[in-house]
Amino acid sequence: MSVGKTSLINRYANSEFKEIMQSTTGICNVETIRSIDGSQLGSSKPVTILAKLWDTVGQEKFDSIPKRYYKGVDGILLVYDITDSTTFDKINYWMKQIAQNVSSIPIIMVGNKTDIESLRAMEYQEGKNKATELGLEFYEVSAKSGEGVNEAFDQLIIRALQNSPQKLNPKAKKNSRKNKVVLKSKKKKNEKKAKCKC
After folding, report:
1. What's the pLDDT at 189?
2. Which residue pairs from 189-198 have beta carbons closer than 8 angstroms and sit at least 24 positions apart in sequence?
3. pLDDT-based confidence at residue 16 (cuts at 50, 70, 90)
4. Tens-digit pLDDT profile for residues 92-109
5. Burial of 111 (0-12, 13-18, 19+ CB in 10 A)
6. Which CATH number fits the domain 5-182, given the four candidates 3.40.50.800, 3.40.50.150, 3.40.50.300, 3.30.750.24?
7. Which residues have CB under 8 Å from 25's CB, separation 6+?
8. Domain limits, the chain
9. What DSSP assignment string belongs to 109-146?
10. Which residues is 34 bridged to in the sheet?
11. Burial tier of 1 (Cβ tally within 10 Å: 0-12, 13-18, 19+)
12. Are 145 and 15 in contact (CB under 8 A)?
């Protein structure tokens, strides 16, 4: 069962949800421009960011595919499905994979699908306790309703920028009327909607 990573990215980047989405079988990336609270970044004004979001496969048989994409990653959203305990049980596995490939980057643990409360298999406190054990921040969200999605992604971006303050590029400030931060790559100005580049 899918934990809903693609749906979460689609909700965050495009403010939309599709009931049926094709399962990811490789790597997709989406670029999105966001305006986030600058108070945690030493700015009294909102900070505009160009973020690149990578959607990786979540099945062990494909675990060799994402490894090359760990290089240069700024932060990780670790997602499980609150209606499927087996996805929660794999958190330790993925933390081990992350530890083997990257270090000293922010990781936020996310329990998705709070809109299906009647099918909940993992309680909020179980997720919270696991995140505390691993030293991670924790959110429960719903890609379908949008609840908590912006908060989780925005917080990951803020933590990534706090971890790598050089990303707040002075040159970007000169070339924009706002504080503009570029994470990973450029985006065409006339691109209306972020699409998965599979």
Report:
1. 45
2. 191/31, 193/14, 194/13, 194/14, 194/30, 194/31, 194/32, 195/30, 196/6, 196/9, 196/10, 196/28, 196/29, 196/30, 196/55, 197/28, 197/29, 197/30, 198/24, 198/26, 198/27, 198/28
3. confident
4. 999 998 999 998 999 999
5. buried
6. 3.40.50.300
7. 57, 62
8. 5-182
9. EEEE-TT-GGG--S-HHHHHHHHHHHT-EEEE--TTT-
10. 49
11. exposed
12. no
pTM > 0.70 = yes
Strand arrangement of the beta sheet that strand 107-112 belongs to: 76-81, 107-112, 137-140
Beta strands in the chain (DSSP E): 27-36, 47-56, 76-81, 107-112, 137-140, 180-182
Mean pLDDT of 11-17: 89
Query: Token digits for 103?
Result: 């270090």
- Over residues 131-152, the pLDDT tens digits come to 999 999 999 999 999 999 999 9
Q: How far apart are CA 180 and CA 45, in angstroms?
A: 11
Residue 109 has a pLDDT of: 98
End-to-end CA distance of the chain: 20
Residue 170: per-residue pLDDT? 45
* Amino acid at site 61: K
Decide if 67 contacts 101 (C-beta within 8 A): yes
Q: What percent of the chain has pLDDT over 70?
A: 75
